[in-house]
């Protein structure tokens, strides 16, 4: 009986890992009157991969990185194949914006590093130009569906 429980637990664990590797957890983020469907990057592996390896983001889609403490986290464009806007969030408030982060053909060790002016606990990545198109500004509130 114990052996059967162990096997069942392993099978469920493997299926769960497989499923979420192909179907990331999602939520919505609303800024002003625009709602974005975002993939959540919660684990270290998800944060490290980020948008790397993807060819694009659908309109009004993005990725939300969630941290358990505030820090001026650093980001780079490793393996990201399209330009993005980075919105730096402290709890529910936009504290900094990095617009139109371009692709780089530099070697890994020479990639530009981006970080906010203040510590944050969330980072939202959207298609480049979204911030300007919507007029998103520092100080605006962000609503995250939980």
Name some characteristics of this structure.
146 residues; alpha+beta; Jelly Rolls; 3 helices; DUF192 domain-containing protein; Saro_0823-like_sf; DUF192
Structure description:
- The chain has helices at 2-22, 44-49, 130-134, and strands at residues 26-31, 34-41, 61-71, 84-90, 93-101, 120-127, 142-144.
- The chain has 146 residues and is an alpha+beta fold.
- The protein has a single domain (25-144), classed as Jelly Rolls (Sandwich), CATH 2.60.120.
- The longest helix is centred in the N-terminal third of the chain and has 21 residues, at 2-22.
- The protein is globular.
- Mean pLDDT is 89; it is low at 19-23.
- The relative contact order is 0.21.
- The protein has a seven-stranded mixed β-sheet.
SSE layout and pairing:
Layout: H1 2-22, E1 26-31, E2 34-41, H2 44-49, E3 61-71, E4 84-90, E5 93-101, E6 120-127, H3 130-134, E7 142-144
Parallel strand pairs: 2-3
Antiparallel strand pairs: 1-2, 1-7, 3-6, 4-5, 4-6
Poorly predicted parts: 19-23
CATH homologous superfamily descriptor:
Protein of unknown function DUF192
How many beta strands in the DSSP annotation? 7
Task: Supply Rg.
Answer: 17 Å
Record the strand order, biggest sheet.
5-4-6-3-2-1-7
CATH class: Mainly Beta
How would you summarize this macromolecular structure in one to three sentences?
This protein is of the alpha+beta class and 146 residues long.
